[in-house]
Amino acid sequence: MAVCEVCGNDYAMSFELHAQGAVHVFDSFECAIHRMAPICEHCGCRIVGHGVEASGHFYCCAHCATEKGVSGVVDHVETAPR
Fold it and tell me: Are 24 and 36 in contact (CB under 8 A)?
């Protein structure tokens, strides 16, 4: 068994996550997200999906990136009717 580095649970089904040369141990995806997911630089939420990266800064969505002055990003593209 291995101990989760977030909550300290000693769990038989823990798992390792290898990232940027380091090995992390978690007992759940919830703890892995808490430790590993980047934080939106505008609203502060954890970025669990793709998010937006601009000039080394991370945002959860195009709206938050735009609020911080990033231009040229959109959450969706309008499509013309067929």
Answer: yes
Surface-to-core class of residue 63, CB atoms within 10 Å of its CB (0-12 exposed, 13-18 middle, 19+ buried) = middle
Q: What is the 3-state secondary structure (H, E, C) of 6-72?
A: CCCCEECCCEEEEECCEEEEECCHHHHHHHHCCECCCCCCECCCCCEEECCEEECCHHHHHHCCCCC
3-state SS class at 5 = coil
Model pTM?
Answer: 0.77
pLDDT (tens digit, 9 = 90+) per residue, 61-77?
999 999 999 999 988 87
23: β partners: 18
**For residue range 8-31, what is the model confidence (pLDDT) as tens digits?**
999 999 999 999 999 999 999 999
**Cβ atoms of 37 and 17 closer than 8 Å:** no
